[in-house]
Write a structure and sequence with these properties.
Elements: H1 22-52, H2 55-65, H3 68-95, H4 102-126
Helix pairs in contact: 1-2, 1-3, 3-4
């Protein structure tokens, strides 16, 4: 019997071969923001639990929840929410079969990124 000689090459295109494109980075960032929204949600739920457990417990937890670090995490959660929301709208638009050309996809990616920063700033100013 013959033994097959294994070739020393990648089986499929890999990240080391292709440079990332803006549209692929925004797609990956959509998944990251979806998962990172869990952190903000957990902080929010922790705050609700501290309120529900009474004034004494809330007073113990309040300095941690009102810290600058948690405020920063919550602002990032606001940005992640708007980014994920706009990227979801972009995917719904793509599901209709429109916006799939390279130029249109790039424009939509820029709209998602710029729109998420603008909506985050607007939300932070309102809140």
């Amino acid at each position: 019997m013959q033994t097959k000689k294994k070739k020393n090459r990648p089986l499929s295109p890999h990240i080391t071969i292709y440079r990332p494109q803006f549209t692929s980075v925004t797609s990956i960032l959509t998944r990251i923001t979806g998962n990172s929204l869990l952190v903000g949600s957990l902080i929010f739920v922790f705050w609700f639990i501290s309120v529900a457990m009474g004034e004494n417990y809330f007073n113990k937890v309040s300095p941690y929840i009102n810290s600058g670090f948690v405020d920063f995490i919550m602002f990032l959660s606001i940005w992640a929410f708007w980014y994920h929301f706009l990227a979801g709208l972009r995917h719904l638009y793509w599901d209709t079969g429109r916006g799939l050309e390279l130029y249109e996809a790039k424009i939509l990616a820029y709209i998602v990124v710029v729109g998420s920063f603008c909506l985050s700033a607007f939300t932070a100013l309102i809140i």
